[in-house]
Write a structure and sequence with these properties.
Length: about 230
């Protein structure tokens, strides 16, 4: 499958997002765009339709997590938005994930790719044990959640690039790994702890990288995006 760079458009509103995307007018292949909660809650489903109409693929990163029936109905609404990837929390359980696949599947049998967040990168071993009372090694929990996602019929997981190889070993080469935490070798790390370069992510076997600030905050976002594509996708 084709490796792709997804640009996280973490902007507070429609205008800032569209102004940013206008800069890519001259790029032959329009960037794959991630729309997260902030932008979706601020600008609503219309921002998805508008970006799609401009010819971008879309990863709608809303991380659903509720009872199976509610997630199924919400996914059914999202399926009409014609996004390319959407996601949920694996912590909602296998039945919830199966219901999500059902809700997302359109009458003609097609559906966007559906991936699961395993354990948030903001949760470490001690939080997991002391707050969530899950007393297992964190990597074991991540792999179990990935296996649950696979059992429910999902297409892959969001994970750290450093976990991508293990996810492929555990769940199969065609089970997708979508990996944030990307930084250029010479760039600032920001608040991301476990980071890797686009080139290293390619080497490890990520299928998609999600890149936010190294592109959105760059002096020349188009050049930064093309550098990611060159390092990761070519
Ligand atoms: O700016 P930066 O490259 O750190 O942005 C990464 C993007 O990936 C953000 O939109 C962030 O919410 C998302 N993300 C992440 N770590 C996760 C899951 C999602 O950084 N575990």
């Amino acid at each position: 499958m084709k490796r792709e760079v997804i640009v996280a458009c973490d902007f507070a509103g429609k205008e800032a997002t569209l102004t940013f995307l206008d800069r890519f007018a001259g790029v032959s292949e329009k960037p794959f765009v991630k729309i997260g909660m902030e932008l979706f809650y601020a600008a609503g489903p219309d921002i998805v339709r508008e970006i799609k109409a401009r010819g971008h693929k879309i990863f709608l990163d809303l991380k659903l997590h509720d009872i199976p029936n509610t997630v199924k109905k919400a996914m059914s609404v999202l399926s009409s938005l014609d996004v390319d990837i959407c996601n949920l929390h694996a912590a909602g359980g296998i039945d919830m994930m199966k219901a999500a696949v059902e809700g997302l599947t359109r009458p003609d049998g097609t559906r966007p790719l559906l991936i699961a967040v395993t354990v948030l990168t903001s949760i470490d071993q001690s939080r997991m044990e002391n707050e969530l009372k899950i007393e297992k090694p964190l990597p074991e929990v991540v792999m179990q959640y990935a296996l649950n996602a696979k059992a429910a019929g999902l297409d892959g997981v969001v994970c750290s690039p450093l976990e991508a190889q293990k996810v492929h070993d555990t769940c199969g080469a065609s089970f997708l790994t979508v990996t944030p935490g990307i930084r250029f070798a010479e760039g600032a790390q920001g608040d991301q702890q476990r980071v890797t370069t686009p080139a290293k992510a390619k080497e490890i076997g990520s299928d998609y990288i999600v890149v936010g600030r190294p592109v959105t905050a760059a002096e020349d976002p188009v050049a930064a995006y093309l550098k990611c594509v060159k390092e990761f996708a070519e």
